Amino acid sequence: MRPTKRLLALGVASVLLAACGHKDKDAPLAFVPADTPYVVASLDKLDDSAYEAVLAQLNYEAPGQVAQLKSYAQEFDAKGNADAARLLRAVVAELDGKNAETVLKNVGVDLKTGSAVYGVGLSPVARAALADPAAWDAFVGRLETAYGKKLDTADAGGQAYRHVALGDSGTQLIIATVGKNAVAALLPADAAQPLIRQALGVDRPEKNLQDDGRLADLAKDKGYKDYVVGQVDLTRLLPLVAAGKDPLFASFLKQQSKKTGEPAPQIPASCQEEATRVAARVPSFSFGYTKLDLHHVEQRVDVALASDITSAFSGLKVELPGLGNDATGPFDASIALPVEQIRTFFTTQSEAVAAKPFACPAFASLNDSFAKMGSTMQQAAIPPFGDIRGVRLVVDSYKPGAPGAAIPQITGRVVLATRNPAGLLAMSQAVLGGEFKLAADGKPVALPANLTQSLGMPGWAAMNGQAIAIGLGDGEDNKLDDVLMGSTGDAGRLSRLHLNGDMYRTWVDVMSDKAQQYASAMAEAATADGAPDSQAADTATAQRSKAQFDAMKAQAARVVQVTGEAHMDDKGLVISGAVEYK
């Protein structure tokens, strides 16, 4: 038996060593402290499909980003900050007219291997894998030349790094090439050596996220791909802030005291306890991709919530017609608004805060907010508002209003689910005046002529025992029965969304046109006599907005559809979104 046991033990040990051996101990995740309050990181290398998708997205976004950087540079020039303007133009020179692969090669970054952004305490650290450390150092050198002066250099445990004070903020930016990683961190201006060494990775954390496996377990539980996974742990973050002892936060308070001449505020002991109390209600939120390739980008966000919050809604089936179906209209959105359950839940929360109000100054405003919420919830009980269950909006066509017209031309349907459709109808009759008879048989009835004339299109209404539907536009009367008979929400369902590519492009075009008009108006105003000092900044902001919408127009041409949904499960709120591209 003993030889057999030895062989089994040897076999198990070999498996464990093999499992550990495949981990790259110099991967960015290996430097992330296991107790970090926030992290966004790659768990594994991007596969070819995901890599191509990321490159394509970067290439589509690049023109808009370059245009915005140019605008920021102009704004810095106008404010007399020539150094910052030169630095931004140097970044523009690295990006302008180049595809993503060329930029990555020029700066030496290894996008496939990945990166991590995380907190050493509250101090943010960014660590990216490098394909060519020499190219990265040359890139930083080009930025230094553009900035007009070399950054200060220093040494931490034998690791050289550059650093620069960020104005009078009490913080400094440190940059280093550590092995095959590029590292940048925001630290207190007077950061002690142990903090600098840990940020750089000279001193590794006692426990790291790669070995801890917390992020990998989270990804597996939520269905996130390994490409990028993020988590903000509020049970660590909020008490860390409330204690006031974190070096970055303490430096911020110290610097604010210098600016105001007032003593640094003393944080009451109650703040840490109450931060823990708040964090217990919303312990964390996380996010990641669930699918990523050239034609699909699907993401999911999870908000962890206390059990009494999830239990109030996770089993709730909201009787909103259409909430139980996949949304399919050009624009189709269903939102659960179960006023009765919402009122009960928030009244309970309001009473809990009133029974034990917050004493910490940072949270004291919550006392008034919850008191007002309690009052509002009592008013929400008044019919017909207290009977509302949800709303669905389907837009079949959208045409911007003609010049001078305030209202665009929209055709579609609205469904308002309620426990008392007849009561809602009676209130509508009182508001609109006149007699408008509508039976609960689902059959469409033409809206009053005075209403349709003001809208400039025909309209109808239909009602059954759970909702009232209104249709505006030719042919919408024939679609009311379908929306009234739509499947109601399954347990925990809160919303659904669908937007097709044509509707998305229409809306982006409208917003882009408005941004163009605003930018032109701001540019003209900037040349007028007596223009205020803020006009240059306002003009630059308008130009950045225009650039952003121009970039959105370029991407909109690829969009087939945008979808989304939200539901409550026994762990918290889940929000999913997807974009399909041509």
List the SSEs and their pairings.
Elements: H1 2-21, E1 38-41, H2 48-78, H3 82-95, H4 100-107, E2 115-120, E3 123-129, H5 133-147, E4 152-156, E5 159-165, E6 171-178, E7 181-188, H6 193-200, H7 209-212, H8 214-222, E8 229-233, H9 234-243, H10 247-260, H11 270-281, E9 284-293, E10 296-304, H12 307-313, E11 331-336, H13 339-355, H14 365-379, E12 388-399, E13 409-418, H15 421-432, E14 445-446, H16 449-455, E15 459-463, E16 467-472, H17 480-484, E17 493-500, H18 501-526, H19 535-556, E18 559-568, E19 572-581
Antiparallel strand pairs: 1-2, 1-8, 2-3, 3-7, 4-5, 5-6, 6-7, 8-9, 9-10, 10-19, 11-12, 11-17, 12-13, 13-16, 14-15, 15-16, 17-18, 18-19
Describe what you observe in this structure.
The chain is α+β, with helices and mostly antiparallel strands and 582 residues long. Helices cover 44% and strands 24% of the residues. The chain has helices at 2-21, 48-78, 82-95, 100-107, 133-147, 193-200, 209-212, 214-222, 234-243, 247-260, 270-281, 307-313, 339-355, 365-379, 421-432, 449-455, 480-484, 501-526, 535-556; strands spanning 38-41, 115-120, 123-129, 152-156, 159-165, 171-178, 181-188, 229-233, 284-293, 296-304, 331-336, 388-399, 409-418, 445-446, 459-463, 467-472, 493-500, 559-568, 572-581. It has a 19-stranded antiparallel beta sheet, with helices on both faces. α9 (234-243) runs antiparallel to α11 and α18 (501-526) packs antiparallel against α19. The longest helix has 31 residues, at 48-78. It is globular. The relative contact order is 0.10. Residues 1-21 have low confidence and may be disordered.
